[in-house]
Amino acid sequence: MIPMKKYVAWLFILFLLSGCGIFESDDAGNGRANDGAATESNEDVAEDELEYDGEPPAEGKGNVFGEIRWNGDGAADLEVLLCADFSSFSGCGGEEFLTTTDEDGQYLFEEVDPGVYALSVRVFNSDDWLYISSGILSSAEFEVEAGKTLTIGIQNIFKLDVKLQDPPNGSKVAGEEVLLDWQDYPNAEYYKVTMYPNEGDAVLIDKRSNESSLRADLLPVSCGYRWSVEVFNSDRVKIAETAEDFDFVVDSLDGSCQLAIQEPSDGAEIRGDDIVLDWDDSPLATTYKILMWNDDDPERTNVLDFEEVNESSYRFKEPLAPARYVWSVTAYDENGDKIGGTEIFDFTVRP
Length: 351
Fold this sequence. Notes:
Layout: E1 16-17, E2 20-25, E3 62-70, E4 73-74, E5 79-87, E6 91-100, E7 106-112, E8 115-122, E9 129-135, E10 138-139, E11 142-144, E12 149-156, E13 164-166, E14 171-172, E15 177-182, E16 190-197, E17 204-209, E18 213-217, E19 223-232, E20 238-241, E21 246-250, E22 261-263, E23 268-270, E24 276-279, E25 287-294, E26 302-309, E27 313-315, E28 323-332, E29 338-341, E30 345-349
Parallel strand pairs: 3-12, 14-21, 23-30
Antiparallel strand pairs: 1-2, 2-9, 3-4, 3-7, 5-6, 5-8, 8-9, 8-11, 9-10, 13-15, 15-18, 16-17, 16-19, 19-20, 19-21, 22-24, 24-27, 25-26, 25-28, 28-29, 28-30
């Protein structure tokens, strides 16, 4: 199951639960996804088989049966929704069926029209919905057949109530390290912490901590960061995570992880000869890598395939053909660690 209220960026987190994921949405279907590739598999957790022994569906209709658990127990009184059409950004659409889990966390949709549906669960007393997913921004498809009861099986859900404490959201931090601190969570066996800079390699990816705090080194340049925490029980099942990432900024160090492009300016139209790419210098960078492709080429052929240079500029030796070009630069220190980068710019070479 994957939360939908996570910031959409280059990658999306897949939280694999019982072979499926959960994707989180609010009532309006708006959301975001954490960038980075944080995954948690529960394949080592033994699951009970779930069998339906109730009445068969009426002629021409189907049933859907399943169970929702939180922290190993059936989660009672949760709303469960089947919808015929699902969008990662707009939520459910088309025909919908709504039911509620019983005291054992089990639910039953009766007399459902045959078809393919998405399934979601409301997160306790909140406006958030967890969609069972089959991949990045893809809801799992459940086919309901006439005269049959579809048993979806047991799904473990998680709460979105982990309280981050320090650094406070939107705060400033001095120095090259930070102490991350959050409230102890009941039934927590351990935590996993993820922290990304605005530009550069991840500082923490699923870093395990047995305590509700963790000290981490930061980049050696000024930068902004965002961080989040997940909670796992003794069965290694995720039971909670932060509803929103916290962010903080370090602005007291030399240089920046966010390098500005100087020329060509974004969207510029220029001649194809004597083109120079130029960007801000990073004082701790020893190399830069340039990625640029011809965006008018159906194959998106790379003109510069992570071309490595030691200066904060690059001059083309040959003229560029008329086309729209897209490019960006990343900066690396002497250890080969990514410590900065530019935004993605484009320019057009006139015929």
